[in-house]
Amino acid sequence: MKKLWGGRFTKSAEEWVDEFGASISFDQELMLEDIEGSLAHVNMLASSGILSKEECGQIVKGLLSLKEKAERNELEFSVKMEDIHLNLESMLIDEIGPVGGKLHTGRSRNDQVATDVHLYLRKKVEEIIVLIAEMQAAIVQQAEKHVETIVPGYTHLQRAQPISFAHHLMAYFWMLERDKQRFKENGTRINKSPLGAGALAGTTFPINRAYSAELLGFGSIYENSLDAVSDRDFIIEFLSNSSMLMMHLSRFAEEIILWCSQEFQFIELDDAFSTGSSIMPQKKNPDMAELIRGKTGRVYGNLFGLLTVLKGLPLAYNKDMQEDKEGMFDTVKTVTGSLKIFAGMVSSMKVRTENMEKAVKTDFSNATELADYLAGKGMPFRQAHEVVGQLVLSCIQKDCYLADLSIGDFKQASELFEEDIYNALEPYQAVKRRNSAGGTGFEQVKQALAKAKSLLAGE
Ligand code: ARG
Question: Among 73, 124, 161, 222, which residue carries the largest CB count within 10 Å?
């Protein structure tokens, strides 16, 4: 098979060398974007008088027929033709004859591939934004049921202060909100057309870049032709945003894994998101959460892979840049899959409120209440902290909890304690009173939920 660029060559590479250089095994993912880019390019060529209307008509017809076949997955690609661009161009020539060879007028594969990736990633980022919103909705829906469900809040994975379970869940809502904003920002930089930058220097043909950009729905064009074909920042930004998102999902996954352990028993995952063990009949493993945590690693790897590929590359295009795609495709697949699984896992999980309730009653996470109580009555907080620390110590020695102490015990520690101390020690009260902005108090949590819902509704 003759190469489309074969003119200056006297012999062809051996098959295994071709195979090493080819990207068709993975860049066929871009087939529809490549056709879309070509359609815009050829229409621009005709409208600028570079190709005749008839030539354009023939090429458009050929491209549309390839598009139909592509949509039906009927195209058969060849490694000999290296990549998606050359495969489609040679198929076009086979389909409509030599006039197909006019498509590449005033264009290079360098601006062509950049255009394809911009089109592809623009679409994928939009899909990811929708999936993030769906996961946020799943969180809100679960949180709404648990505003008044009290759980221990942790720092250092030690029981710290009781909080509303909804408040804990909603922390992830806001992380995802920032992720969504980052992808939206990313989208504005993706929405730029490199088409018409040529190989690196622009072209002698009187092309109209603004017109092809408009046909492809791009908001603007790259200002500099070298930058247009060399830029992969928008992919790095995508990989970086994805890494941050996966880091958030991974933290959430870790908590889910903890919560459904025998030690916590705070939630139970739906059978649909769990697996069993081939040897231990009692096991119900949170595999999906573990996998999301694990897959975070490959997304970080993809980010570092591309940063490293680009570091030290001279302008403009270098073949190294073909390495931008697999990590990007892999990240798209990983992120979309993880978000879908996570949303399902969150909305179907069973919350074991009785165990959460038991947990907050059998710990010292209400100790801050005592210190705040004393400080509220005028004792300097530092001193109150010391008094309560000693009460905790005496409980540990007596093997009981703060609420088990008698009023006499309290009074002995400080005369400021009154009978109402028992009410203050109730975890429910402790949560309810934390009504500072953004705190876990029920009023605050309800307000946050209302705000979250209006954000999701696009208000
Ligand atoms: N398959 C190539 C890539 O993905 C397309 C661009 C090739 N350009 C070139 N001058 N060899 O990067």
Answer: 222
Three-state DSSP at 193 gives: strand
Q: Rounded distance, CA 92 to CA 164, Å?
A: 62
The verdict on the CB of residue 87 being under 6 Å from ligand 1 is no
Neighbours of 152 (CB within 10 A): 21
Residues 236 and 277 in one domain: yes
Give yes or no: residues 237 and 189 share one domain.
yes
Q: Tell me the residue range of the domain where 46 lies.
A: 6-105
DSSP string, 325-386: HHHHHHHHHHHHHHHHHHHHHHHHPEE-HHHHHHHHHSSSTTHHHHHHHHHHTT--HHHHHH
**Pair 24, 87 in one domain:** yes
For the chain, what is the domain count? Answer: 3
Q: Does 295 reside within a domain? A: yes
- The structure's pTM equals 0.94
Instruction: Determine whether 220 is an active site residue.
Output: no
CA distance 263 to 233: 45
Report the distance separating Cα 24 and Cα 137, nearest Å: 38
Give me the numbers of helices (H) and strands (E) for the chain, helices first please: 19, 6
Q: How confident is the model at residue 162 (pLDDT cuts 50, 70, 90)?
A: very high
Q: Select from 62, 43, 66, 63 the least CA-distant residue to 53.
A: 43
Among the three residues 329, 358, 387, which one is the final residue of a domain in this structure?
A: 358
Nearest ligand 1 atom to the CA of 82 is 1
Give 322-360 pLDDT, tens digit per residue: 999 999 999 999 999 999 999 999 999 999 999 999 999
Cα 122 to ligand 1 centroid, rounded to whole Å: 20
Do 78 and 146 share a structural domain?
Answer: no
> Beta strand 192-193 with 220-221: parallel, antiparallel or unpaired?
parallel
Nearby residues of 142 by Cβ (< 8 Å), 6 or more positions away:
169, 346, 347, 349, 351
In three-state secondary structure terms, 296 is helix
What is the Cα gyration radius of the chain? 31
Residue 121, domain CATH: 1.20.200.10
Q: Which atom of ligand 1 is nearest to the CA of 199?
A: 10
Residues in the chain: 459
Cβ count within 10 A of residue 2: 10
Residue 277 annotated in active site: yes
Q: Is 215 within 8 Å of 190 (Cβ atoms)?
A: no
Q: Is the pLDDT of residue 281 over 80?
A: no
Q: Are residues 149 and 286 in the same domain?
A: yes
DSSP state of 11: S
Any ligand 1 atom below 6 A from CB of 368: no
Nearest C-alpha neighbor of 410 from the set 399, 422, 398 = 422
119 and 182 in a single domain? The answer is yes
The pLDDT of residue 276: 80
